[in-house]
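S.,

Sequence below, as promised.
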Amino acid sequence: MAALISRLVRAVTRAAEVADDDLVHQALERPSDMGAIVELLRSTLPLLSAEREIDPELAASVAALEAEDGLVRLAGGLKDTKWVAGYLAISPKSVAAKARRNELLAIARGDRNLYPTFQFRDGRVIPGVREILQALPLANGWSRLSFLLTSDPGLDDRSPLAAFTADPEAVLALASNTDVQGAA
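The prediction came back faster than expected:
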């Protein structure tokens, strides 16, 4: 753990050294510490040629973090199993079972699952989540989250989740016709 923290401090220090005041202020405007770090790394990456030469996948990794951060914001944040269990008044094992049965969207993070906040309202999982997840062939939680929250021209530029109440058949058809790469 100490080695990881040391590398993290070195990386942020290098990024901060090349960042001008505007980039630093832009990073500090983010509401979370992680968001600030992602913003600092994203905005200074073009200035860190040595890091790009050593690690050619660095730009793609930062872009993936940025995309995940955007999805998390769209989702209203992520909740842990304990929070979900309390909110739904069920056991943590029941939360995991609901995720396995596609009744609840889970995002794997390391050895635990996190749950996008948008799917909870009035003490239960909102209508449409279970139906869409069960029709959707995508297995990756991030891909599933993106599908649920991204507007689609076939749904009058609404997200599948937003369109579900008005047109569940169209949403379920789109979900079931989505290929494993996430494109319909």
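The chain has a mean pLDDT of 88.

Coffee later?
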